[in-house]
Amino acid sequence: MTLDSVAIAAVTLLFLYPFVLYPALAALAGRRERGRKAAEDPASPLPSVALVICALNEQKIIRQKLENSLALDYPKDKLRIIVISDGSTDQTAAIAREFLARGVTLIEQPKRRGKIANLNSVLAARGEDLLVLSDANVLYRSDALRRLAARFSDPEVGCVSGKVILTDTTGLLDEPTGQYYSLEWFLQERASRIYSMAGADGAMYALRRELFRPCPNDTIIEDFIIPMQVVRQGKRVVFEPAAVGWEEGATSLREEFRRKVRIAAGSMQGLVRGSAWPRNAPLRFWFVFLSHKLLRWLSPLVGLVILMLSSLTLDQFFSRLVVMGFAVMCGLALVRIATGWRNPLVSAPFYFLFGQVALAFGLLKGIAGRQTVLWAKADR
Questions:
Q1: How far apart are CA 164 and CA 144, in angstroms?
Q2: Which long-range contacts (CB under 8 A, 24 or more apart) does 100-105 make?
Q3: How many CB atoms lie within 10 A of CB 142?
Q4: What is d(CA 137, CA 134) in angstroms, rounded to the nearest whole number?
Q5: In whole angstroms, what is the distance from residue 15 CA to residue 132 CA?
Q6: 199 φ/ψ angles, rounded to the nearest 5 degrees
Q7: How do the domains of the chain map onto residue ranges?
Q8: How many CA atoms lie within 13 A of 314 on its CB side?
């Protein structure tokens, strides 16, 4: 093998590492660290909880969300439900007012500010033990709060992320999205055993009140930056698969593309600002961060380098193999788009390339500072 082929093979291995090699390593590492998980004490008194629901024009779901929240299996004297209406122009606030007599607190923002600006102004003033952050369109299973709270019996745990299942996802994304989240939940559980997750699910996660630190009001993905602050303070972020919720998935490719672009832009924003880097974290967490996050974020750049090097050395067998492999992936993805055939043979290449393109756009927007903190909400 020539030097050119060795270089291309090395970069290809770097590209494949977070998608292929890391899951295998995480499985092995998670098994070795199984004993680190602290036993949860069911007799421990339940902490007080502030369930904070951020809502923007959610009149179609906010009533159901509040009924769902009030029906949660958690002591009423230890649960405070707070709705923040972020400049809603529909009936969201009016519907929430109907629940004031039942103990719900409503905070109406006259102008839209974005999720993190509202969290900054509300969370710092809360006095409850735990802060549970929820989107308005996520319905929790009745025991979800108890499941989240139980993990805090371990003093090393500072943040707990739940398992939010997507429903009614557009047909073109349904199968690959389900496979993607199954892998993500596996990696989150393994990362929790190794040391800590890198980030949390913004639709359902809890943290100790004293660990919350305000973020800049233009922070794009607070559900990564806030948990990273927890890790920086020496605490762990863990996955609790028994804390279950349901959320409607993307109803179109355009909506899913925007979501992925936004996440990628927020990731790059955090890298540029330094808030995404795990300072003061142990090496075990650096392993998780580099493998599960950083190398994934940079994968479009690494992939572009592979294609450029291969195109310049087509006289080499390995280079031709790489270019042919990429062409085959593109062809299979096109078959998925053109025919709608639901088979992993075509679904996996389509979803992977779809994600890579969205990631590349997002990284560019993050570097340029062109991604707004105000989410373009889908009308459902």
A1: 11
A2: 102/70, 103/70, 103/76, 104/66, 104/69, 104/70, 105/80, 105/81
A3: 12
A4: 8
A5: 36
A6: 105, 180
A7: 35-251
A8: 6
pTM for this entry: 0.91
Distances in Å between the Cα of 218 and the Cα atoms of 53, 117, 207, 214, 221 are 19, 8, 21, 11, 9
Question: How far, in Å, are 164, 184, 278, 372 from residue 248 at the CA level?
Answer: 10, 18, 32, 23
Please name which of 232, 42, 71, 33 lies closest in space to residue 151, comparing C-alpha atoms. Answer: 42
Q: Report CA 320 to chain centroid distance, whole Å.
A: 36
pLDDT of amino acid 64: 98
- Reported as a single tens digit per residue, the pLDDT across 332-368 is 999 998 988 888 899 899 999 999 999 999 999 999 9
CB atoms within 10 A of CB 294: 18
Give the contacts of 327 (CB within 8 A, at least 6 positions apart).
none
**In 3D, which of 199, 56, 214, 205 has the Cα closest to residue 126?**
214
Tell me the average confidence (pLDDT) per consecutive run of 10 residues in the chain, 380 residues long: 85 96 89 49 82 96 98 97 96 97 96 94 94 96 97 97 87 71 94 96 96 95 96 97 93 90 96 94 96 97 96 92 95 91 88 96 94 70
The half-sphere exposure of 273 on its side-chain side, counting CA atoms within 13 A, is 18
**Token representation of residue 179:** 């496979």
Q: For the domain bounded by 35-251, which CATH number is listed?
A: 3.90.550.10
3-state secondary structure of 179: helix
Count CB neighbours of 132 within 10 A.
27
